[in-house]
Amino acid sequence: MITWRRVTEADFPLLREWLARPHVARWWQQDTSPEGVARDFGPAARGEEPFEDLMVLLDGTPVALVQRSRFADCPAYADELAAQVALPEGAVTIDYLIGDPALTGQGLGPRIVRALVAATWTDHPGATAVVVPVNVANRPSWRALEKAGLRRVGTADLDPDNPADGRDHYVYRVDRPSGSDGRQAATGPA
User: Fold this and answer.
1) Which of 4, 7, 131, 183 could form a disulfide with 54 if both were Cys (CB 3.0 to 4.6 A apart)?
2) Where does the record place the N-acetyltransferase domain (predicted)?
């Protein structure tokens, strides 16, 4: 069973461990020092900013991190993306990582994405779509989005998280189901 809760400061040691693992560090260029993790995750954990850092649990055990935010809360990023692909008003984005490399490649990523997308329609009643740019080199990430039912709607030229990567990003999107509570958005191939 996949559940989640807000990241708390008690989760910071685990986040540091995950962020330092090679399969995560390759895509998440984060400062993994105690000070860096506190700086990057502390404001959301304390409710001081509108972004959501969510600890994903599989049968009660922490396995992943999902960050969810409204593009409206990141206007410069929204403008940059909207200049290249259609970005509906009210769109939300997510970013994600699986902490344990032994859990990757087993369908957990798509399950997490489907669950979070479905919950977004309830958690954010004004959300019109979930739009996710992902570096074209990060095949496991964009394949997880496809398996979760998001569709590729274009490409964008964006700064990469890792300076070693190119600027090309695929952009994936799923729209809020009309006349539905969103549950159908969580179905699809796994």
Assistant:
1) 4
2) 2-177
CA distances to 26, 48, 116, 132, 184 from 124, in Å: 31, 18, 11, 16, 16
β-strands 2-6, 129-135 pairing: unpaired
Residue 21 sits at the vertex; the CA angle it makes with 189 and 33, to the nearest 5 degrees, is 130
CA-CA distances (angstroms) from residue 83 to 70, 132, 146, 174?
A: 17, 15, 23, 19
pLDDT attached to residue 162: 81
91, 63, 25, 153: CA torsion to nearest 10: -30
Q: What is the number of residues in the chain?
A: 190
Q: Total domain count for the chain?
A: 1
The reported pTM is 0.89
Q: Please give the structure tokens belonging to residue 69.
A: 């935010």
Q: What is the mean pLDDT of each run of 10 residues along the chain (190 residues)?
A: 96 98 92 96 95 96 97 94 96 96 94 97 96 95 96 94 89 89 38
For tokens 């959301």, the residue is 44
For residue 63, give the CATH number of its domain: 3.40.630.30
